[in-house]
Amino acid sequence: MKNILACIVTIITLSNLITTSQGRRVLQSFETFEYTAITCRSHSASITEYGGVGDGKTLNTKAFQSAVDHLSQYSSDGGAQLFVPAGKWLTGSFNLTSHFTLFLHKDAILLAAQDLNEYPILKALPSYGRGRDAAGGRFASLIFGTNLSDVIITGKNFILLFTKV
Q1: pTM summary value
Q2: How far is the C-alpha of 102 from the C-alpha of 115, rounded, in Å?
Q3: Closest Cα partner for 85 from 122, 112, 50, 118?
């Protein structure tokens, strides 16, 4: 209840701050990035704070997983948001956590790594049987999680690419 009330107060406060006297909405800024979404998360960070490089060549799997792992400590304190700024972000599979928002800038492009070693082999699901994707298991998806709650992946016009660019 405390988190819901804090979220409502935050939305009302931000709504007042970003609406001009003429009723037009004004963009809110996040560091040096244009950022228009309202977040109800108590904590937020940018992937660049964890070593992420959006050049389309640097593999960012460790940066994404480090960011999620670090931000997971705020799960019981209103959750956390990871902001992915404009750029081409090459990554393999990474796990999300509960009470988490992955927000992608409108010019952010997630590039799925083509190296199968970037996708761990997971235990086979009973409905798939054994060995459907690989002997004894299946590959993890690009963005993955199990038994999670309150997870949001959002942004404006972001792109996920699964082919070489």
Answers
A1: 0.71
A2: 23
A3: 50
Strands across the sheet with 108-112, in order? 55-59, 87-91, 108-112, 159-161
- Cβ-in-10-Å burial (0-12, 13-18, 19+) of 17 comes to exposed
Sole residue written with tokens 């004894």: 136
Structural domains in the chain?
A: 41-161 (2.160.20.10)
How far, CA to CA in Å, does 98 sit from each of 41, 132, 147, 157, 158? 12, 29, 8, 24, 22
User: For residues 90 and 130, what is the distance between their CA atoms, to the nearest angstrom?
Assistant: 30
Q: Per-residue pLDDT tens for 104-148?
A: 999 999 999 999 999 998 877 766 555 555 457 778 889 999 899
